[in-house]
């Protein structure tokens, strides 16, 4: 039976047409009844091992699938004409783009990273759990499995060079239902096949590793556990900012508010990109556009995968609650719930309960297929799912924020990283869904290899930069210093004596450091990602106006220009205070 016949048999009510090209890319057209069904059809088509990937152009009866309109960006860029000529353009300043930028900064290359938002880490990179997964969840043999395990290992070097927090807390999966022991052993087998350091341990040993089991009254009930010590935790935006700053210190330039609206090609070769800031000519274009990577690839004439957003909602608990809940999740733990048949069959792991290096507890994420790439809404169902993944003692009142992000999943449910088979010089770094953060160092290395091998094969090998500096300059973190160190710092610079964010204890000195860094923030959230000002219990209620004022002063901008998170999110709309002459008149 052909794939089309199989699909029609399984979904008799849907209108399904398939076309497979010489590269084994299967294109789906037709119409079905719901978005969930459209995704299921895509998945089923992709299951065929002879199919490289799936482009899903099906429509849903009665549903308008939202699409980004690139026309205004195109028109703006065409008016400006050619504005730059570089060796490499990287599209997207998430963890993938920043990691690759830093990797390429080792070479004598003119690299420009363009990002459509106002800052680094505004896509999936800012809305994830910061888990540096060991690699037990990825299907053996996939690119995801390989890069996850390699990337996890490489994080130690990244953290040493770049100075971000990495906690190797380890992961503990356990079962209390003896019937689930074979399922736990199956996960162990996958972990071993993927090359993950993993050990099956007794309930007694599990309770020694995770005292939370004792506190929860579970210690005596654990029948068997799986211990994977390589699991790590990071603050994801901290990693992305450190990578970007180190890349910038080594010569990579960053253009923000710069949307790629077209990829330019000539005789099967990439020649640059058209952006709202003009045409940037380039020998190589690297597509790290997250959830939009499929659209960028299509712009390059290589329509070879479709991304379907899989939204995840996460709840953050008040940091003050950590001591209370700490014992429940010293490590990243999961239990019987996750090993039920329903969860084992899911395309994504979904999440449980973990803490961040800074001491917040995270609940979730959920996992939901949605049609709109921009949908970051949170809904009661996802919220209760996220909250239900942890301990019963956790209260909604302890939550300081819910947020959502979308995983950019393709239908093969694997990463899609390759030099385009159609457009030479165009490199796809697509479908970087979870564990994209954990895999980032290995993704960057792989792309470095693709690019340098290509250049060598085409007779222009790329030279290393002898002045490359792998070290990212560490900035003072006031709240972690001893009293004596704090006093000495304030003596040197009184700005460290002024607390701006009371919840997190962030000083003006730290905010100034961030604003004057090599990749400076321009919005209040940009300052938040770099310093944590606004990440505490009050969520910026107290410090937001102070941060706004400092940004305006230091960047010589009007208060009304300062945004929360880029274009269209201005905080103050007008200065309606009476000026001096009006005041006199009133008097
Ligand atoms: C809820 C959730 C939880 C997760 N948890 C984990 C976890 O614990 N561990 C883990 O390893 N992974 C996790 N992930 C996955 C991880 O977050 C992603 O794999 C990773 O962040 C992807 O990074 P990226 O740089 O490829 O994409 P992104 O971070 O999305 O960056 C893409 C960038 O491209 C820009 N862009 C898009 N189109 C254009 C254009 N036309 N022009 C210019 N710029 C453009 C976007 O603005 C964006 O900044 C999670 C994901 C979600 C959603």
| Weakly predicted, low-confidence segments | 341-349
On the 0 to 100 scale, the average pLDDT is: 92
Number of helices: 19
Q: What percent of residues adopt helix (DSSP H or I)?
A: 25-40%
Q: In terms of structural class, how would the helical and strand content be classed?
A: alpha/beta
Over the alpha carbons, how many angstroms does the gyration radius reach? 25 Å
Bound molecules: flavin-adenine dinucleotide
Beta strand %: 15-25%
Q: Please give the number of β-strands.
A: 25
Task: Please give the alpha-carbon distance between the first and last residues.
Answer: 88 Å
Shape: globular
Considering the chains and any ligands shown, give keywords for the structure.
587 residues, alpha/beta, eight-stranded mixed beta sheet, five-stranded antiparallel beta sheet, 33% helix, globular, binds flavin-adenine dinucleotide
Q: How would you sum up this structure, described in words?
A:
The protein has 19 helices and 25 strands. By secondary structure, the protein is an alpha/beta fold. A hairpin with a 6-residue loop joins strand 22 and strand 23. It is 33% helix and 21% strand. The structure holds flavin-adenine dinucleotide. The site of flavin-adenine dinucleotide has 42 residues, from helix 4, strand 16, strand 21 and helix 14. Flavin-adenine dinucleotide (FAD) is lined by residues 91-97, 114-117, 122-125, 127-131, 133, 259-260, 288-292, 296, 312, 314, 365, 405-407, 432-438.
């Amino acid at each position: 039976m052909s794939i089309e016949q199989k699909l029609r048999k399984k979904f008799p009510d849907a209108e399904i047409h398939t076309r497979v090209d010489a590269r084994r890319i299967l294109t789906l057209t037709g119409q079905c009844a719901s978005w969930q069904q459209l995704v299921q059809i895509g998945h089923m088509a992709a299951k065929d091992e002879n199919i490289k990937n799936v482009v899903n152009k099906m429509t849903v009866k009665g549903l308008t699938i939202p699409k980004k309109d690139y026309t205004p960006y195109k028109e703006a860029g065409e008016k400006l004409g050619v504005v730059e000529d570089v060796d490499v353009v990287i599209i997207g300043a998430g963890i993938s783009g920043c990691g690759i930028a830093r990797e390429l900064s080792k070479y004598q290359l003119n690299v420009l990273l363009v990002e459509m938002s106002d800052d680094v880490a505004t896509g999936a990179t800012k809305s994830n759990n910061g888990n540096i997964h060991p690699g037990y969840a990825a299907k053996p043999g996939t690119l995801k499995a390989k890069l996850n395990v390699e990337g996890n290992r490489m994080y130690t070097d990244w953290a040493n060079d770049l100075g971000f927090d990495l906690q190797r807390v380890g992961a503990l999966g356990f079962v209390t239902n003896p019937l689930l022991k074979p399922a736990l052993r199956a996960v162990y087998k996958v972990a071993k096949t993927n090359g993950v350091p993993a050990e099956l341990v007794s309930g007694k040993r599990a309770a020694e590793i995770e005292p939370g089991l004792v506190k929860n009254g579970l210690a005596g009930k654990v029948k068997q556990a799986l211990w994977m010590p390589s699991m790590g935790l990071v603050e994801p935006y901290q990693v992305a900012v450190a990578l970007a700053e180190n890349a910038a210190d080594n010569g990579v330039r960053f253009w923000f508010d710069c949307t790629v609206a077209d990829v330019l090609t000539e005789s099967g070769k990439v020649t640059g990109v058209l952006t709202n800031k003009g045409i940037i000519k380039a020998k190589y274009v690297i597509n790290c556009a997250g959830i939009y990577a499929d659209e960028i690839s299509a712009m390059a004439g290589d329509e070879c995968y479709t991304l379907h957003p899989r939204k995840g909602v996460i709840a953050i608990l008040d940091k003050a609650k950590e001591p209370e809940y700490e014992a429940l999740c010293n490590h990243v733990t999961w239990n019987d719930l996750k090993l039920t048949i329903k969860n084992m069959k899911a395309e994504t792991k979904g999440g449980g309960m973990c803490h961040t290096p800074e001491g917040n507890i995270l609940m979730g994420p959920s996992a939901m297929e949605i049609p709109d790439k921009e949908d970051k809404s949170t809904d009661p169902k996802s919220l209760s799912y996220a909250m239900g993944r942890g301990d019963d003692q956790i209260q909604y009142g302890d939550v300081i924020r819910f947020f959502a992000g979308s995983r950019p999943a393709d239908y093969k449910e694997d990463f899609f990283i390759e030099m385009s088979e159609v457009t030479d010089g165009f490199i796809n770094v697509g479908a970087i869904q979870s564990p994209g953060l954990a895999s980032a160092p290995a993704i960057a290395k792989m792309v470095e290899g693709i690019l340098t091998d290509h250049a060598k094969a085409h007779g222009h090998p790329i030279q290393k930069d002898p002045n490359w500096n792998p070290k990212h300059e560490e900035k003072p973190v006031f709240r972690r210093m001893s009293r004596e160190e704090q006093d000495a710092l304030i003596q040197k610079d009184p700005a460290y004596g002024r607390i701006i964010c009371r919840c997190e204890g962030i000083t003006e000195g730290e905010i100034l450091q961030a604003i004057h860094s090599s990749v400076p923030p321009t919005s209040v959230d940009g300052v938040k990602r770099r310093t944590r000002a606004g990440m505490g219990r009050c969520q910026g209620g107290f410090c937001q106006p102070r941060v706004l004022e400092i940004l305006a002063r230091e960047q010589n901008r009007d208060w009304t220009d300062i945004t929360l998170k880029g274009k269209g999110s201005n905080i103050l709309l007008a200065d309606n205070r009476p000026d001096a002459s009006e005041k006199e008149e009133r008097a």
